[in-house]
Structures are given as C-alpha cells and as structure tokens.
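Worked problem 6 (solution included).
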Amino acid sequence: MTYTIFLILIMIVAFLLILIIMVQNPKGGGLSSSFGGGGTQSLGGVQNTTNFLDKSTWTLSIVLLALILLSNFAAPKVNAVDTSSEIENTIENREVQDAPVQTVPVTSTPAQDTVQ
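Solution. The predicted structure is:
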C-alpha cells in the first residue's frame, strides 16, 4: 500500500517538475520575460518569478530524488527462497509412473538383406 502511494507521489512530482521546466526559458526569458518586458524593468515581480521557478525546480528535483530513494524501502520484498531447491524437491517427490513399453518388431530392409 505504501509503495503505491510512493509511486503516485513520484508521478505527481515528476509531472510538476516537467511543467516547471517547460515554463522556463533557457536564455533567461521564459515566464519572467512575459511579465516584465524581457528584463528591461528591474522591478521586483520579474526577479521574483525567476527566483520562484529556480527554487521550485530545485525543490521538486530534491523531493523527487528523496521519494525515489524512500520508495526502495517500501518496495514489496520477494521471498528469498532458492528456486533450485524447489525444483529438486519437486523432482524427488514426483512419483514415476511405469507405462508399458511398446515394442516394435524389427524388420529387415532389402538393403540389409543384400549386405548380409
């Protein structure tokens, strides 16, 4: 149950991280340039938008990494049973059923008659 919750949280955080990254412009424009005219104004709004996107990107990426690492501990464990011993036990415990063996009469072929 906890593993499923971790998987859902990982998917949500990954989706949000994709959205935040797509909003940013690699040249420094992005969402901040649409609000302030491309950096010509140095009012607080443009700089705060860039800072918010940067901080949210780092925060979401750290949260994603932490969720992935924590989900490893919540993952369902597989029984550590040696499968070769199970196969050997099955083979040893299997009852051999004796089936009547059908014999086929051996007939000689013309090639064998001439060789003899």
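Discussion: Helices lie at 2-23, 30-36, 44-74, 83-93, 110-115.
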